[in-house]
Every structure is written in structure tokens, then in C-alpha cells.
Write a structure and sequence with these properties.
The chain has about 375 residues and is an alpha+beta fold. The chain is built from 13 helices and 8 strands. The radius of gyration is 21 Å and the shape is globular.
């Protein structure tokens, strides 16, 4: 197709914190074709994991994504626990879920900040980061780390991550204040005509395309697809909590942001239920009575902030990890964003891509795995 010009964005963009290259072929500032180029980072984490004991690869899995560090470690150790029939104490499972929901909160708030920054509303961006800060402080108090928490280990959680009953009232108090501020941010967003003009009916991903390109997480749920692993019985501990799967049908940027806004309220519900139940649970947080044994590669799924995360590996007769495969949700979500860019104004391009909350670094790790298999 003949176009008047090509605009190349990246590999560095001031509001997208990870490297990517976006080629836009435009006519009169309207996108006719788009090509999203990834693969800037070379990491090869799966190659490094091969031949290591499972305890060490859980440390590496945390480095795949800083924002999703807890869910990666949790899903990683679940493979060994499933393959070796390791029973995890109920209290440890609850705390794993509580930490994950705090991580979901800070991840979604991070996206809101970046989304407002992309549309040029820096006041709202800083407000989102200010609201997020108490969640980061709670994570540090629980786990010792603001971003990389190193909470799950094979058979349970680390001793430092145990939530003492005395800490619960303080956490609940700050959580209530966070909910109040989050509600204000949501109301301010949907009642601001300038914000809504930039995000409503922009970047529409219809349900058929989302299903065809395997959208996942809030990106899929913003297009009317039900795909939450927590509600499908994939992660058993979530069967103990009452919460709703948030689904919007319009498929635009607003819907993808709205799913995340309302998911935050559902995460707050889960955290409150978990903290309320903790004092009634046994104090044991770790099962040391397990033995590593060989098993063939098995698959484990979990619900990360951006969607479905998948881990698969096996253990050989020496207790070493083999055939490591990790799949993160961004790759298919980026394919969806690339497909819907044509027809939009060039100024909406980065906003549309940002609305799927991409993690380019963990996606580039996946590209390396694909090349290795070839």
C-alpha cells in the first residue's frame, strides 16, 4: 500500500519504559498500516535455567518481570510442588494470594500512571503514583522488598513473609484509605471530558479479534471474553474467596482501563477476606518434609496482572530442571494492539499499545526461546 510517509517510534519512547520499535505507515496522520517490532533485549532466561536445581530457577524467574515478580515465583514453585506431590500449608497459600493481590494493585496503578502520562495529563499520572505508594510500603513490610518480594519457596513461603496478626489492623486501615483514593481517581477519570475524549471509542478490539489473536487478561476481558484463571478453578486457593470477574464489552481503551480499575476493588475484597481468615489458620507456613523426584514436564497456569502466565519444566534423575518453558501474556496482547492500530490517528498509537499494559522485556525473553527452538 502506498502511503505518504512512515513514522518510526522507538526503540526508546519517553513514556514507554521498555524498548520497542513501532513503524507507522500513515496518510494525513491516519494510520494505514502498523508494524510493532520487538526483540530488542537479549536475555535467554530459559537457557540459563536449564540444568539448575529448582530452588535456583525460582530466583531467576523473579527477574523475568519486576512488576510481576511474585506471580512468576509462585507459578514456578507450583510446578515442582505439583510434580513432586508437595503439600503446601494453607496459611502459606493464603499469604501467597494476598501478596499477589497487592502486586496486582500496584501493577494496575502503575499502568494508570503511565496511561495518563501518555495522553499528557501529568497531574493525574502523579496522583496515580501517589495513591500507589502505600501499597508498595505494605509489600515492603510484608516481604522485605518493594518490587521483588521473593515470597514463595518450594513447600511454602519464606519466614519473613509471614503476616503476624498484630500487623493486620494497620494493613486494613491503609487498604481502606487506598480504596477511598482509588474511587476518587476513578470518578475523576470518568467525569473528565478531556480524558474520556482520548480513551472512549479509541483502539476498539472486538470480541472476535480478541479471541482469534488469543488476547488474555484485562485486555481480553475488556473485549467481553471470560478468561480469569482465578475464577476457573485453576488456582485452588482462590476458591476460598468471593470476588467477581470484571468484564466490559466495548473493547476500547476505556474498557481496558475500566477492567483494571474495578479489578482493583475485587483485589481489595480478596485481601480483606484473606487477612480476616489468617488468625484462624494454623501458624505453619512451610513444609520441609518433601523429596525432589524426577518428573516429566508438566504445565501450571496462573493469573498474572496482564493475563495468563504459564510455566512448564521437568526434573531429571539428578534433580535438575529440564525443558523449561515460560509464557507471559504480553506477546498475544501486543498482536491484538498491532491489529487494531490502522484507522486511528498517529497520536493515539502509543496510548493504544499502552492500554494492554505491555511488558516488552519478558516478551523479548520469549522471542529468544522461539529462536532457540528453531
Amino acid at each position: 500500500m502506498k502511503c505518504e510517509e512512515e513514522i518510526a517510534i522507538g526503540p526508546v519512547h519517553p513514556t514507554m519504559l521498555e524498548p520497542h520499535r513501532l513503524r507507522l505507515f500513515i496518510e494525513d496522520e491516519i494510520i494505514k498500516e502498523a508494524e510493532l517490532v520487538i526483540g530488542v533485549n537479549y536475555r535467554g532466561i530459559e537457557l540459563i535455567m536449564e540444568g539448575l536445581p529448582p530452588e535456583k530457577i525460582s530466583i531467576l524467574s523473579e527477574k523475568i518481570c519486576g512488576i510481576c515478580s511474585h506471580i512468576h515465583v509462585w507459578t514456578n514453585v507450583m510446578v515442582t510442588e505439583k510434580g513432586c506431590d508437595i503439600e503446601v500449608p494453607e496459611r502459606a497459600e493464603y499469604i501467597r494470594a494476598i501478596v499477589e493481590e497487592f502486586e496486582r494493585l500496584h501493577s494496575h496503578m502503575l499502568l494508570f500512571g503511565h496511561a495518563f502520562e501518555v495522553i499528557g495529563f501529568e497531574t493525574m499520572a502523579f496522583r496515580a503514583f501517589m495513591i500507589r505508594e502505600p501499597i508498595m510500603q505494605i509489600l515492603r513490610e510484608i516481604t522485605g522488598g518493594r518490587v521483588q518480594n521473593s515470597c514463595p519457596i518450594i513447600g511454602g513461603i519464606r519466614p519473613r513473609c509471614n503476616i503476624n496478626d498484630s500487623k493486620i489492623p494497620s494493613i486494613l486501615e491503609r487498604l481502606e484509605k487506598f480504596e477511598e483514593n482509588l474511587n476518587k481517581l476513578l470518578n475523576r477519570t470518568i467525569n473528565d471530558p478531556m480524558i474520556m475524549a482520548r480513551i472512549k471509542d479509541v483502539g476498539v478490539l472486538d470480541k472476535k479479534t480478541a479471541k482469534k489473536l488469543h488476547a488474555t487478561g484485562p485486555t481480553a476481558r475488556g473485549s467481553g471474553l471470560s478468561c480469569d484463571m482465578r475464577k476457573k478453578g485453576i488456582v485452588p486457593v482462590y476458591d476460598n474467596f468471593e470476588f467477581e470477574e470484571v468484564i466490559f464489552d466495548d473493547g476500547d481503551v476505556f474498557s481496558r482501563l475500566a477492567v483494571r480499575f474495578y479489578e482493583c476493588f475485587e483485589s481489595i475484597k480478596i485481601i480483606r477476606q484473606g487477612l480476616k481468615e489468617l488468625p484462624n489458620l494454623d501458624k505453619n507456613i512451610y513444609n520441609p518434609n518433601y523429596e525432589l523426584k524426577p518428573f516429566k514436564p508438566i504445565n501450571v497456569y496462573n493469573e498474572a496482572q496482564r493475563g495468563q502466565v504459564y510455566y512448564s519444566y521437568g526434573l531429571d534423575e539428578n534433580g535438575r530442571v529440564r525443558h523449561v518453558k515460560v509464557r507471559t501474556p504480553t506477546l498475544t496482547n501486543l498482536a491484538c494492539m498491532e491489529a487494531i492500530l490502522p484507522g486511528h490517528h498517529v497520536s493515539d498509537a502509543e496510548l493504544i499499545i499502552a492500554s494492554c499494559d505491555p511488558c516488552f522485556t519478558c516478551t523479548d525473553r520469549m522471542i529468544i526461546q522461539t529462536n532457540r527452538k528453531k
